[in-house]
Amino acid sequence: MYKLLALQGVMKRMSKPSITEIDRKALGELISRVEEAIKHELSLSVEDMKLLLLAISTLCNLQEKIEQNDVTLHKLRKLLGMVQSSERRQKDPSNDESDKNGDEKKKRKTSKPKKKKTKRAPPTIVHHKITDFARGQLCPACSIGKLYKFEPANLLRITGHDKFEVTQHVVEQLRCNACQMIYKAKLPESVLEDGGADQMYGYSARAIMVIDKFYSGLPYYHQENLSDTFGRPINASTIFDQCEKVANDVMPVFYELKKQAANAYQFLIDDTHHRILKQQAEWRDKPNGKGQALRSGVYCSGLIAQLDDGHEIILFETSLGHAGEHLDSILQYRQAGLAPPIVMCDALSSNTVTKTEVKVSHCNSHARRQFVEIESKYPDEVGWVLDTYALIWKADAVCKEKELNPEERLEYHQKNSLPAMEKIRTWCKEKLAADDFEENGGLGKAIKYFLKHYDRLIQFCVVPKALVDNNRMEEKLKIVIRGRKMAHFHQTANGAGVSNVLVSLLATANSDEKNIKYYLQALQKNADRVKESPASWLPWNYEKTLEKIKTETKTENEN
Fold this sequence. Notes:
Layout: E1 2-7, E2 17-22, H1 24-40, H2 46-69, H3 73-79, E3 173-175, E4 182-184, H4 189-192, H5 203-214, H6 220-229, H7 236-261, E5 266-274, E6 282-285, E7 292-295, E8 298-306, E9 312-319, H8 323-331, E10 342-345, E11 359-362, H9 364-372, H10 379-402, H11 406-416, H12 418-433, H13 442-452, H14 454-457, H15 471-487, H16 493-511, H17 516-525, H18 527-532, H19 542-558
Parallel strand pairs: 5-10, 10-11
Antiparallel strand pairs: 1-2, 3-4, 5-8, 6-7, 8-9
Helix pairs in contact: 5-7, 5-17, 6-7, 7-16, 10-11, 10-12, 12-13
């Protein structure tokens, strides 16, 4: 179906736009009638003229919106799904030609970050001994030589298993015929490792449910369908109940992460829209402190807290609040006397922190994006800006490659990146000062955005450890976006709360290169100890804690 958005103002000036649908057959017939009318110099019917008038009005309306709202063809194609949503620039054929000196022009390309290596679980090693022959035995083939130990052969076998394996444990019981006392057989330690004697779903099964839902984005009903396919039916409500139990067990660690995140030297924040079906609108204070506003929009706010010891904490909050309010709620735990933290974000007012003094650093990827979206309209001018802008990411890549410390990195950016930013600023000012420049057009808006936020865009050249962009936070938001695309919404605020706890814990543990399945199992098994000392069970501490418990248990058994 072809949908033509048209203004009914063609017939009635004050009416609102409507949508007219024309199927492929009707559209083909209309085109044929128009061609025939042109060929034979005939007039169209009143209905055909109305339809054409609607189409023309639609075109005029679209052109007007493009001019007013800066909806460029590149951006329009992205919105319509005609091209991939990517900021990588298209290859310019002219870059392959040689210039007058015979030197090839440098191809425009963006630096690709190195993929972080993840730790793999070591394979289980099984030794297979020879039973038919023995060391020192005469060789059956030649009856001359003797057999000796030789280098073993290796076979690496990867096998597949059902996601949930069901085992029925029949526990023998004896009862006294006098006092009715019941004595049960003891379950093997291997069984108790995965849950208590009265626990139907083991720690490992619960961990898989959590990872599928909150890291892979697989909805509860999809998990139900899959379990039924494998012959192990588990309904969606049961899966949610098990995930909620895991959230309750790991809740102390989640609150400990919030407290430790408050003392970070730098925060990366961003948010994405979400839905909670049973969330009611609420009156909340405005970020600027001037009155209240009725809030109904639900967002998932992401936060990365970078700590002085090199670890990072990733937290998510799905609610009526924005990223700035989420960070405000974290900073209330910040220790007194610490230097103001750096906050990396985009220039939206929703990222404003109001309750704590901070150093704001704006994302250069967002500023660059303003120019990328209009490159097709201003190829020469914008091409120069993007080539110059690329120098700061190249400089940042050199800093990472050479592993420079914060002071050396700052000095390198001041020497190599700051001149590039100043060149762009000078060029922007000259463009705005020109008499024939249209400052309300697409290029004008991109220039004004860059100049308005210039001081915060160059914070990586002013403050040690300040980042160039906010790409890492946007990358982590993909975890939530995967779930939103598959499940579309949370039913209740309680369901969103379970998601906040588990997604935050999984993202933080994965960032620390920990096996998230083993981590969730350890927290469940030691739930009582987790409540007593949650700091000992943070992703970077829990393995040492397990070793300590193992040593203490061994010592007690020996005594």
